[in-house]
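Recap quiz, item 2
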Amino acid sequence: MTDKKKEFFLWRWLKRGLGVGRKELSFEEEEQIQTPMRAMVSNFVHRKLAMLGLIVFLSIFVFVMIGPKFWPLDLSDQDASLVNLPPSSNMMKVPEAMLKAGVADIAAGNTYGIGTDKNGEIYVWGHSRITDKIDVANIPDEVREADIVSIAAGTDHVVALAEDGEVYVWGNTRLKQDKFGNDMKKAMKAGGEDWEVVQLEASNQFSAIVCSDGNLYLWGNGNMADIKIRSKYEGKIAKVALTENEYISLLKDGTVAYTGYKDKNSPFARVPDELDELTVKDIASTSKTVAAITEDGQIFVWGNATKGENKIPEFASKPVKLYGGRYHYTALLEDGSIVTWGDNKYKQLNVPADIANAGNIERIFVSNYQNYALDTEGKVHTWGLKGFVLGTDGLGRDMLTRIVNGGKVTMTVGAISVIIATILGILFGGIAGYFGGRIDILVMRIAEIVGGLPFIPFAMILSAVIGSRIDPTQRMYLIMVVLGVLSWVPTCRLVRAQILAQREMEYVTAAKAMGIKEGTIVFRHILPNVISLLIVSMTLDFATCMLTESTLSYLGFGIPLPTPTWGNLLNGANNSIVIQQYWWQWVFPAAIFGVCTICINLIGDGLRDALDPKALGR
Amino acid sequence: MGKYIAKRIGYMALVFLIVSLLMYSLYNLIPSDPARAELEAQKQGLTPAEYERMYQELRERMGLDDPLLIRYARWMGLWPDVEDQGFNGLLEGNFGYSQFFKQDVIEVIKAPMSNTIFINIFSTILALGITIPLGIYCAVHKGKRIDNGVQVVTMLGYSIPIYIIALIFMFFFCVVWRIFPISGTKTAGAIYASKWEEFIDMLHHITLPVIVMTFASLGGMTRYVRSSMIDALSMDYIRTARAKGLKEKVVIYSHAWRNALLPVVTSIIGWFISIFSGSVIVETTFSLNGMGKLYWTGLNNLDFELVLAIQMFYTVVALMGSLIMDISYGLVDPRVRVDK
């Protein structure tokens, strides 16, 4: 058979293992030639629905088992700026119309981008709804009419500067984000030389303006942010960098100073000593750190650097400009290449290869997790957080990551509990079935008690009583054991019934006659004949265990948060706000879990039918 | 038959004792001190020595220093109390005192118990009313388009966890169409003109939970009825009946259905027990004032006397269920001689 040899050996093994690819056998032949196991498999693969279930289930299985490698889980992860975001991927989708007219300025808020073109038009993209009623895309009419030259985006408000020096604020204005200080109003009214804005900045509920005469004006939510300036710095400020609630200033004499009133205990007030002798050219800030770049190209970072903001890389040439995002810095070097460092959770450090060293970048706009680079041809290159495919939950965590990792936990727990239950079931069933008599009665009475216990309440009380004194990881093992110990009864009954039937068969008599030990007969002779039935019951039990685990977690008595499972992802979804407004937080976990259990049941039904000659119409 | 039932009841009592002992010792794993809790209120006005003396006295009076088995027997009502030497336990109707609700457990349980039983019986009747005719119809029309459609829907029904079904129903009925309230058993702050109005309001609140519970149990039961009907219809006596020229109705309902009933009865009772414990999920999801919700609240607040009492209720329901199952076995199928 030369044909057969050409076939790839693995393929041939697979075919033989599954019992496909050979000619159909009549059922008498089948019974004589095939083992029951192989007969079951070959019957199974001809069932379309069951095979579909198997394929879908295996894909989900592979997805959740390999997925955590790509979407690693960080249990301490939470981000107040990214909560309850709907599925999107348009956070950096700069409108075409704006590119055509020529980009004048771009700013990025938490989840949206906003920009102006050279005609003074404003464009908003991304998720711009801050709350139910507030949407920064609702640009006030007077702003539409004005010629906007510069724009800054805060957490929930936008500040725009018109050509005539007028400043507009919209978005969330409940916390005085639009209440300018008196001196600023005076300066704005006077106009002329005194009111030439050189820098416009916005941060978490407060904003800042630096004028060419060296005056800094801050306004906004003064309860949170430091919005005061010490009078000795008046008229000396060249540039400002805003952190989450504080700010530092670059003075006109080339030094850096903390010019606010919270300088006693602010980490930003501890400016590195080396900077005293050097001239600072530019400053930048992330949410928790500030950085300064000196004339000779040295960079200093201070503040609470927790995400690698202070791990400054080696530069090929002198850095000239520095920009800060939420947890990362982007520097433009003298030769035009771009270097980034800091946190890379949302790929905000991954500069596209075609611009990293191209040297044609004119300006860079960096804020939060987004980077926009404008090249000399007026094209905008972006990198950073595009959006979340499946949205985020109430703590700003990516739903996709949680679903993938939750699936892994749910499946692991389900699989291990099934294994425990099956081992216990085989053990007790085997003992009861083979030895019979008093042992049988005893075992079956125990099984009756365990099987008669109301499952969910009992598992809940076990988890609550024992789980209260152990740590979350141990609690996960506890759940596996509880599920396993409470669900071995059906397997036990099945094994016992099968053994009772098989015990009378000739091969057992033969084995007995040969003097084989009873235990060996049960576990080595009888059990292999029951294995196909066991597989069916294991498949169906797997679905049941997954369901029970997720139900317990849903009720808050299973795997505790923050470890995700498909059950506790839905914990807290039963209120109208989540159901209606944050639909992605329950639809996606519910859908993948539903599909998964349906598939397992399809497989189980298919296997059962494949095993049952009656279902084949014989 | 009578002897058999007596034997079963004796066995049930034994199981009940074992389970309750198990639960009681589990409950005793919790580090809690009722004596200290009771003294907590007076602690301010006492000197340390006085406090210690009163504490020890109270411990003695409560019998906290006795061995576990004696405490268990006392709780159960099989051992005299320290104080008045009377029997005062579970068997005498004293279910304990709820620390969380600051009330006797029996008072706390009354209203939720009636709610739960009402909901469960209501949804059981509803589900049986739908599943039995549907299952028979599908079995008779096996392989037809309607049968396949029903198979798909029931597959969904029993695969999808009940709380996901609840969320989906909530989305459509409470959020999109706003037909039913999303939680609770009565309108907050409502004053009713009559009993009837109160009843209607309650009905309005529990309709959706009942629908969800019914829908969730449709799947399994319909499939069960269908498959046992198919088995019965494939028997030789059906062929005989048809060959005799009997009407199809008679063949189905008189010959096949009676024989298909046996496995159905078994599963109905098992399923009735499971919906009792399954109503924990529905009640918590809909914040219904039922046993399940109470159980959940008790567990979350570590109110273990309450939890223990409800757990006993579930156990009794389960045991009664299995007893009824065994007896009805004999009633439905004369071949099964239970008294043997």
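The longest strand of chain A covers residues 361-367.
The longest helix of chain A spans residues 518-555.
End of item.
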